[in-house]
Design brief:
151 residues, mainly alpha, 2 domains
Length: 151
């Protein structure tokens, strides 16, 4: 995100009030990045911080709050993974991973509904994440979707 925005590490460091080497270590993964700094990086690079929130939550071990829509939270998490991978088009994903359809990818990322675990599990693999993170998010989303259908 930082590279694509044209923002220099020095610009981010100045806005955060930290040394440029600290920003370098955050961006390389050597240092944990607190949510305050993630928001600054997102805002300075033209990204909505809420799009990265589920990824940050997962990395920090923070559970989603009860006020967040579980279906949208799962989608946002998957969209964040997709973005982190460089936002490849479905045909690019399918060229190397023929375990999903373009429709499955689109539905998982943008809805409507919540797809079966097998599809979400495959997408999690393709987007290079862990099912131990995605499965609880999927369960929450699936339960919320079932409750909405029953209402």
């Amino acid at each position: 995100m930082q590279n694509g925005s044209g923002r220099r590490q020095w610009d981010l460091a100045e806005r955060m009030g930290v040394h440029e080497s600290y920003v370098s270590r955050m961006l390389s993964g050597e240092r944990f990045v607190n949510w305050k700094y993630v928001k600054i990086i997102c805002e300075m690079c033209g990204m909505d911080p809420e799009r990265m929130k589920p990824l940050w939550d997962a990395s920090a071990g923070v559970q989603p709050s009860d006020t967040e829509d579980p279906v949208q939270y799962l989608r946002t998490y998957l969209q964040g993974l997709h973005f982190a991978l460089g936002s490849p088009a479905p045909k690019v994903i399918l060229a190397t991973h023929q375990i999903l359809s373009a429709e499955d990818i689109d539905l998982a990322l943008y809805g409507p509904g919540v797809l079966d675990w097998q599809v979400i599990e495959r997408l999690t693999f393709v987007l290079q994440s862990l099912t131990t993170i995605t499965r609880p998010l999927w369960r929450r989303a699936q339960t919320a979707a079932e409750n909405n259908r029953a209402s």
